[in-house]
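Hey, quick one: can you model this chain's 3D structure?
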Amino acid sequence: MLAYTYLERGRFALMEKPEPQILEAQDAIVRVTLASICASDLHIRHGDVPQAMPGITVGHEMVGVVEAIGPDVTAVRVGDRVTVNVETFCGECFFCRKGYVNNCVHPLGGWALGCRIDGGQAPFVRVPLANQGLSRIPAGVSDAQALFVGDILATGYWAARISQIGPEDTVLILGAGPAGLCTLACALLHRPVRAIVCEKDAGRRAFAARMFPQALMCAPENVEAFVRENSAHGGADVVLEVAGAQDSFQLAWKCARPNATVTVVALYDQPQILPLPEMYGKNLTFKTGGVDGCDCDAILREIAAGRLDTTPLITHTYPLREIDAAYDLFANRRDGAMKVAIVP
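Sure thing. Here's the predicted structure for all 344 residues.
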């Protein structure tokens, strides 16, 4: 089969590989029906993910059909349409029992697919620990609707959940890329009184405004004043930092009201400074970390009920044989690209 493969820093290529086989009792083989390119794939290509293994098939955003299962797989059956979780977790260790599945102690715990083991930018993928890593797609939910459930929607849902958004809150989202918009979509499930999106790119602000007309839009240069004008207590009650830009962490705490929650979703490539003397007296609560991707079934229920729809994020679709062109489009944000779907 053709598989998009990480060869070395700066180089991916389509290669012929054998189809994956069941290796462990909790494995499942999934025929990939739709995949997507993630910014994390670009980080691998740039050499910024030290744990990524040369020779692996990349890709961790995918949906498909179960083709085979190991003897200990009970959560899904052959023929089920499924989402694939970006994280691998055992469901049994201390961290998994607490819901902190990002820190699962299993050897494959955390981000394995498309990083440490073969991922899903290919016709087939082996999913280890499939009882936790696969979720059945409800009848009536399309592949496109379910495509982001295992990764960026799981991230947005987790971030909104740990931020404890209430109905009287003003929520500020920093960043209107795909992850930021998924975070906004999930924050709106909590029915805050107001949602504000800060994004430096005018095209992405316009895209976000079309997708979420109920949210207010602003640019970074005036976000502090804009948030003060559009909140009840001098700042946002909850700030979700999804941009990961040079100054976005500083904007996050500056735009928060006293005793607010600042949830850092973004992954930075440089250390961030926590200027405690400057923020003394604001009594902020910071929450950070990698997604605990254990909410996929709940996300699928929201999609099935019509309360969550991220299909507008899919702006382009390419066949697997043209994936080099798809990466070029996505990496350079050409033609208004937000998310690029890949059909194996």
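One thing worth noting: The chain has two domains: 2-150+293-343, 154-288.
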